[in-house]
Amino acid sequence: MSEVFATTGTIAAIATAVVPQQGSVGIVRVSGSEAMALAQTLFHAPGRQVWETHQILYGYIRHPQTQQLVDEALLLIMKAPRSYTREDVVEFHCHGGIMAVQQVLQLCLENGARLAQPGEFTLRAFLNGRLDLTQAEGIADLVGAKSPQAAQTALAGLQGKLAHPIRQLRANCLDILAEIEARIDFEEDLPPLDDKAIISEIEKIAAEITRLLATKDKGELLRTGLKVAIVGRPNVGKSSLLNAWSRSDRAIVTDLPGTTRDVVESQLVVGGIPVQVLDTAGIRETTDQVEKIGVERSRRAANAADLVLLTIDASAGWTEGDQEIYEQVQHRPVILVINKIDLVEESERKTLQSQIPNLKSKILTAAAQNQGIDALEVAILELVKAERVQAADMDLAINQRQAAALTQAKISLEQVQTTIVQQLPLDFWTIDLRGAIQALGEITGEEVTESVLDRIFSKFCIGK
Q1: pLDDT tens digit string along 242-296?
Q2: Range 99-103 contact pairs with CB under 8 angstroms and sequence separation of 24 or more
Q3: What is the C-alpha to C-alpha distance for residues 308 and 321, in angstroms, rounded to an integer?
Q4: DSSP-based three-state secondary structure for 82
């Protein structure tokens, strides 16, 4: 391995968040051949407690030289191979906060352990055969999940629901390769290859790869979430819409135009999809320098958003200002939110509908009365499903690295088919078939380079 991941020796790290005056428990995790010896040096277990694997001991952590008490704690023992890393692992369960866990970690480092690199515990689990690469990435996704659906998809990867079909596809490719190579080595003793049968089998493999590739957009959406910008003229009810949607008072609401001077964010979950909602300053021409900065930030937020909620005031009708804003954001996916609908009569609504652009999604809301929010969420999900997620019913979702490898495998298989059709020698068939096998092996880690491992595990938090 590279210097980034020198996977030798005994490693230690804090495995829980370190927040001042927060958290009742802090965990220091140690893995490696000297983990047990280090625990016996630092931890005093009174009475006749048994130091056996998968036992929890109660006691005290003391400085080995001065015998100064550092913390009252629990010690969890997990001997190899029945541990996360398949090495000896011990965990000191200390009091939370900052000082206790940091002092315990420092004692571990002073007595033979070194500080773990980001993701090194999980890397050791992978290198020791405890996890494959898709499961390791599933752990990272689970830690970073922003919604219950994202967590469930990560768990599917952790349980091997992606690794199993990938391994099966790779095994099928290996079977085809074995058939071809057998004809190369023992051509005179075996019947000729059935070209049509080979092509048919390759087409089945490619179709399954296409099915898996269809989950990429879903995976990206669940991992990164959807960025939604609420834009419109001042005082059309953008902040009221955010507050009603998030069921909070994140944004200040007054009758004065230009109240919102900056972008206000709120994190929501809609249909299992994480949504970052940006309430922007009202877009208009202004001489107020502070408001002018807010308006410019609003424009940038709209241009960077995955979806724009163009909000108008139903009682004011479709104005020139609304038209100007629409022309600025129409290149993005747009849902028109006709707000303050409770202030107009039915006849006025029909007149308004005839004035506004022919947008596919138009939602009527009365944000101040908490009306129309459900319809807005339905419209968002329909737009997302139509434009970005074509396989939302599948319980797994691939990431960008996996998608790139699957795409390469599919290209290689298509090249094999071309080679067969052109009736090139069998040796040529094997070249691209091996390329497909290698690409599929990169997904699970059966064929992987140090640079790939560095890239994957460096994104993990320290202690995982």
Answers
A1: 888 887 654 444 454 444 444 567 788 888 788 888 776 655 454 455 445 555 6
A2: 100/26, 100/70, 100/71, 101/14, 101/16, 101/18, 101/26, 101/27, 101/28, 102/14, 102/18, 103/70, 103/71
A3: 16
A4: coil
Strand 55-62: give its sheet, edge to edge: 43-44, 55-62, 69-78, 89-95, 25-31, 11-14, 114-115
pTM for the model stands at 0.74
Cis status of the peptide bond prior to 81, with omega within 30 of 0: yes
Report the run of H or E that residue 13 belongs to, with start and end. Answer: strand 11-14
Q: Is the dihedral of CA 125, 157, 266, 334 positive or negative?
A: positive
∠ at Cα 10 (8, 15), nearest 5°? Answer: 115
CA atoms within 13 A on the CB side of 260: 34
Confidence of residue 307 (pLDDT cuts 50, 70, 90): confident
Asked whether the predicted pLDDT for residue 45 surpasses 90, the reply is: yes
Q: How far apart are CA 445 and CA 134, in angstroms?
A: 8
Here the tokens at position 47 are 């009475």
What tokens does 163 get? 């690794």
Inter-residue contact 284 to 315 (CB < 8 Å): no
User: Collapsing DSSP states into helix, strand and coil, what is residue 449?
Assistant: coil
Helix (H, G, I), strand (E, B) or coil at 65: coil
How far apart are the C-alpha atoms of 170 and 209, rounded to whole Å?
A: 11
| Residues 384-393: contacts with CB under 8 Å, at least 24 apart | 384/221, 384/226, 384/273, 384/307, 387/333, 388/217, 388/218, 388/221, 389/217, 389/218, 389/221, 390/214, 390/217, 391/211, 391/214, 391/215, 391/217, 391/218, 392/218
Give which of 267, 245, 254, 275 is closest to 371, Cα–Cα.
Answer: 245
What residue type is assigned to position 299 of the chain?
A: R
Rounded alpha-carbon distances, angstroms, from residue 328 to 224, 302, 338: 25, 9, 18
For 68, how many CA atoms within 13 A lie in the half-sphere containing its CB? 7
The yes-or-no verdict on residue 397 having pLDDT over 50 is yes
For the residues 34-55, what does the mean pLDDT come to?
A: 95
Q: Which two tokens stand for residue 462?
A: 């320290």
- Please report, for residues 110, 253, 282, 386, the alpha-carbon distance to residue 279 in angstroms, rounded to integers and kept in the order given: 50, 12, 9, 25
Q: Are 65 and 143 spatial neighbours (Cβ–Cβ below 8 Å)? A: no
> What would the DSSP string read from start to end of 169-215?
HHHHHHHHHHHHHHHHHSTTTSPPP-HHHHHHHHHHHHHHHHHHHTT
